[in-house]
Amino acid sequence: xxxxxxxxxxxxxxxxxxxxxxxxxxxxxxxxxxxxxxxxxxxxxxxxxxxxxxxxxxxxxxxxxxxxxxxxxxxxxxxxxxxxxxxxxxxxxxxxxxxxxxxxxxxxxxxxxxxxxxxxxxxxxxxxxxxxxxxxxxxxxxxxxxxxxxxxxxxxxxxxxxxxxxxxxxxxxxxxxxxxxxxxxxxxxxxxxxxxxxxxxxxxxxxxxxxxxxxxxxxxxxxxx
Length: 225
Known about the structure:
Elements: E1 4-8, E2 11-14, E3 17-20, E4 24-28, E5 40-43, E6 48-51, E7 55-60, E8 68-75, E9 88-91, E10 95-98, E11 105-115, E12 118-119, E13 126-131, H1 150-160, H2 183-193
Parallel strand pairs: 6-13
Antiparallel strand pairs: 1-4, 2-3, 5-7, 7-10, 8-9, 8-11, 11-12, 11-13
Helix pairs in contact: 1-2
């Protein structure tokens, strides 16, 4: 029942005489909603291994508007008890990305929903492992640690002559568009000989890819170790 004010009075009649009592009022208060139900942890899958650059945690909730979520993430070595402070508080969406926020290792995570009526029970904990992601040098398609004419040649061999894919294919993504194609050797040639746009990071030093990509790096180049 919503918050409402009601007015009331009593009237009496005796023979032909009617008497009306004093008007009075009372109010009702809106009842709080029931606390939300426990959410379901959906991503990543239990005991999944993932990279740390673009870790996405998702959960499912059947509760509607007015429900917020506290996300907890902590090292598995600390045990299964929920930490006192959430990693992220008051989320309104049911997914959250942790971009480069975790060191390699084993982690637990959990989500607690809350609304005006209280907090939900715990959902988990869920478990996942963050792997160490290889570093690379963008544009260094042949893995020598030096950007020169042999890099676009290596890229063209792979693309059009059936050459074996480089061990760290993401290095060949010179223009950082998330794919390896003819635009990449052209981009490197423009940088080397025409003074065109600079190679995006990681360059001129080794580093991680800050742009989510499906390109692999099976082996970290020697120069980056």
